[in-house]
Amino acid sequence: MADVMTTEQRSRCMAAIKGKDTNPELIVRKYLFSRGLRFRVQVRKLLGNPDIVLPKYKTVIFVNGCFWHGHEDCRYFRLPKSNVEFWKEKIERNVARDVRNEAELKALGWRIIRVWECEIKTVAQREEYLKHLYDRIVNPTQSYLMETDIDKPSIAAEPESEQSYGNNNHS
Protein backbone atom coordinates (compact mmCIF):
# COMPACT_ATOMS: atom_id res chain seq x y z
CA MET A 1 0.00 0.00 0.00
CA ALA A 2 1.36 3.40 -0.95
CA ASP A 3 1.72 6.27 1.47
CA VAL A 4 -1.19 8.72 1.35
CA MET A 5 1.23 11.64 1.76
CA THR A 6 3.87 12.94 -0.58
CA THR A 7 7.50 12.52 0.44
CA GLU A 8 7.66 16.20 1.40
CA GLN A 9 4.47 16.00 3.48
CA ARG A 10 5.68 12.86 5.27
CA SER A 11 9.05 14.49 5.94
CA ARG A 12 7.39 17.58 7.49
CA CYS A 13 5.07 15.36 9.54
CA MET A 14 7.92 13.24 10.92
CA ALA A 15 10.11 16.30 11.62
CA ALA A 16 7.32 17.78 13.76
CA ILE A 17 7.35 14.85 16.21
CA LYS A 18 8.80 15.95 19.53
CA GLY A 19 11.65 14.09 21.21
CA LYS A 20 11.23 15.70 24.61
CA ASP A 21 8.54 17.45 26.62
CA THR A 22 5.90 15.22 25.05
CA ASN A 23 2.37 15.14 26.47
CA PRO A 24 2.95 11.81 28.28
CA GLU A 25 6.17 13.21 29.83
CA LEU A 26 4.39 16.36 30.97
CA ILE A 27 1.57 14.32 32.53
CA VAL A 28 4.05 12.25 34.55
CA ARG A 29 6.19 15.24 35.55
CA LYS A 30 3.21 17.35 36.65
CA TYR A 31 1.87 14.51 38.77
CA LEU A 32 5.20 13.74 40.44
CA PHE A 33 5.81 17.45 41.11
CA SER A 34 2.32 17.83 42.60
CA ARG A 35 3.16 15.00 45.01
CA GLY A 36 6.27 16.85 46.18
CA LEU A 37 8.94 15.01 44.21
CA ARG A 38 11.75 17.09 42.75
CA PHE A 39 13.67 15.87 39.76
CA ARG A 40 15.81 16.80 36.79
CA VAL A 41 14.76 16.31 33.18
CA GLN A 42 16.65 15.14 30.10
CA VAL A 43 19.94 14.55 31.95
CA ARG A 44 22.57 14.29 29.23
CA LYS A 45 25.25 12.99 31.59
CA LEU A 46 23.31 9.75 31.96
CA LEU A 47 23.16 7.26 29.13
CA GLY A 48 19.92 7.46 27.19
CA ASN A 49 19.06 10.96 28.44
CA PRO A 50 16.42 9.79 30.90
CA ASP A 51 13.24 11.83 30.73
CA ILE A 52 13.05 12.16 34.52
CA VAL A 53 15.89 11.70 37.02
CA LEU A 54 15.24 11.51 40.74
CA PRO A 55 18.75 11.54 42.29
CA LYS A 56 17.38 11.31 45.85
CA TYR A 57 15.83 7.95 44.97
CA LYS A 58 18.57 6.89 42.53
CA THR A 59 15.79 6.37 39.97
CA VAL A 60 15.41 7.27 36.32
CA ILE A 61 12.17 7.25 34.37
CA PHE A 62 11.87 6.80 30.64
CA VAL A 63 8.51 7.82 29.20
CA ASN A 64 8.32 5.88 25.96
CA GLY A 65 6.13 6.28 22.94
CA CYS A 66 4.68 2.89 22.04
CA PHE A 67 5.50 3.25 18.33
CA TRP A 68 9.06 4.56 18.60
CA HIS A 69 10.14 2.02 21.22
CA GLY A 70 8.35 -1.02 19.80
CA HIS A 71 5.91 -1.73 22.64
CA GLU A 72 5.06 -5.36 21.88
CA ASP A 73 1.44 -6.44 21.89
CA CYS A 74 0.33 -2.84 22.34
CA ARG A 75 -2.71 -1.70 20.41
CA TYR A 76 -0.91 1.57 19.62
CA PHE A 77 2.12 -0.07 18.03
CA ARG A 78 2.05 -1.26 14.45
CA LEU A 79 4.50 -0.85 11.64
CA PRO A 80 3.52 1.53 8.84
CA LYS A 81 2.35 -0.11 5.65
CA SER A 82 4.89 1.77 3.54
CA ASN A 83 8.66 1.48 3.79
CA VAL A 84 8.18 -1.46 6.16
CA GLU A 85 11.79 -2.65 6.17
CA PHE A 86 13.11 0.81 7.08
CA TRP A 87 10.68 1.15 10.01
CA LYS A 88 11.24 -2.40 11.21
CA GLU A 89 15.02 -1.85 11.35
CA LYS A 90 14.64 1.58 12.97
CA ILE A 91 12.35 0.30 15.73
CA GLU A 92 14.63 -2.72 16.33
CA ARG A 93 17.63 -0.38 16.71
CA ASN A 94 15.68 1.77 19.18
CA VAL A 95 14.71 -1.28 21.25
CA ALA A 96 18.29 -2.62 21.24
CA ARG A 97 19.60 0.79 22.33
CA ASP A 98 17.02 0.92 25.15
CA VAL A 99 18.17 -2.51 26.39
CA ARG A 100 21.86 -1.47 26.32
CA ASN A 101 21.18 1.83 28.08
CA GLU A 102 19.09 0.14 30.77
CA ALA A 103 21.78 -2.47 31.44
CA GLU A 104 24.48 0.20 31.79
CA LEU A 105 22.36 2.38 34.06
CA LYS A 106 21.54 -0.62 36.27
CA ALA A 107 25.26 -1.43 36.44
CA LEU A 108 25.79 2.10 37.77
CA GLY A 109 23.21 1.50 40.49
CA TRP A 110 20.22 3.30 38.99
CA ARG A 111 16.70 1.93 39.25
CA ILE A 112 14.89 2.18 35.94
CA ILE A 113 11.18 2.71 35.49
CA ARG A 114 9.74 2.63 32.00
CA VAL A 115 6.37 4.31 31.46
CA TRP A 116 4.58 3.52 28.20
CA GLU A 117 2.34 6.15 26.67
CA CYS A 118 -0.54 3.63 26.49
CA GLU A 119 -0.44 3.23 30.28
CA ILE A 120 -1.44 6.85 30.82
CA LYS A 121 -3.31 7.51 27.59
CA THR A 122 -6.80 7.22 29.01
CA VAL A 123 -7.86 9.32 31.97
CA ALA A 124 -9.67 6.35 33.51
CA GLN A 125 -6.46 4.40 34.13
CA ARG A 126 -4.07 7.35 34.44
CA GLU A 127 -4.73 8.33 38.06
CA GLU A 128 -4.36 4.80 39.40
CA TYR A 129 -1.23 4.22 37.34
CA LEU A 130 0.39 7.46 38.52
CA LYS A 131 -0.38 6.62 42.17
CA HIS A 132 1.39 3.28 41.75
CA LEU A 133 4.28 5.01 39.99
CA TYR A 134 4.69 7.44 42.90
CA ASP A 135 4.58 4.60 45.43
CA ARG A 136 7.15 2.67 43.39
CA ILE A 137 9.52 5.63 43.54
CA VAL A 138 9.21 6.53 47.23
CA ASN A 139 8.91 2.93 48.54
CA PRO A 140 11.57 1.12 46.51
CA THR A 141 11.70 -1.88 48.84
CA GLN A 142 8.02 -2.63 48.27
CA SER A 143 7.16 -5.05 45.51
CA TYR A 144 5.01 -3.45 42.85
CA LEU A 145 3.79 -5.23 39.79
CA MET A 146 1.26 -3.33 37.79
CA GLU A 147 -0.82 -4.91 35.12
CA THR A 148 -1.59 -2.62 32.23
CA ASP A 149 -4.69 -2.67 30.10
CA ILE A 150 -2.86 -5.12 27.83
CA ASP A 151 -2.01 -7.46 30.72
CA LYS A 152 1.74 -6.97 30.50
CA PRO A 153 3.84 -6.21 33.60
CA SER A 154 5.06 -2.63 33.48
CA ILE A 155 6.66 -1.74 36.79
CA ALA A 156 8.40 -4.39 38.85
CA ALA A 157 10.37 -3.78 42.01
CA GLU A 158 14.07 -4.46 42.04
CA PRO A 159 16.29 -4.71 45.09
CA GLU A 160 17.80 -1.42 46.18
CA SER A 161 21.38 -1.11 44.97
CA GLU A 162 24.16 0.23 47.19
CA GLN A 163 26.33 1.44 44.31
CA SER A 164 27.48 5.03 44.15
CA TYR A 165 25.94 7.83 42.07
CA GLY A 166 27.26 7.10 38.59
CA ASN A 167 28.27 9.65 36.02
CA ASN A 168 28.39 8.50 32.46
CA ASN A 169 29.90 10.60 29.72
CA HIS A 170 28.54 8.52 26.84
CA SER A 171 26.02 11.17 25.77
TrEMBL record:
It holds the Pfam family Vsr. InterPro entries: DNA_mismatch_endonuc_vsr (IPR004603), Restrct_endonuc-II-like (IPR011335). The keyword NAD does not apply. One of its GO terms (biological process) is mismatch repair. GO terms for molecular function: endonuclease activity; hydrolase activity. Keywords: DNA damage, DNA repair, Endonuclease, Hydrolase, Nuclease. It comes from the Bacteria. NCBIfam families: vsr. Belongs to the Vsr family. This is DNA mismatch endonuclease Vsr. It comes from Duncaniella freteri. The gene is vsr.
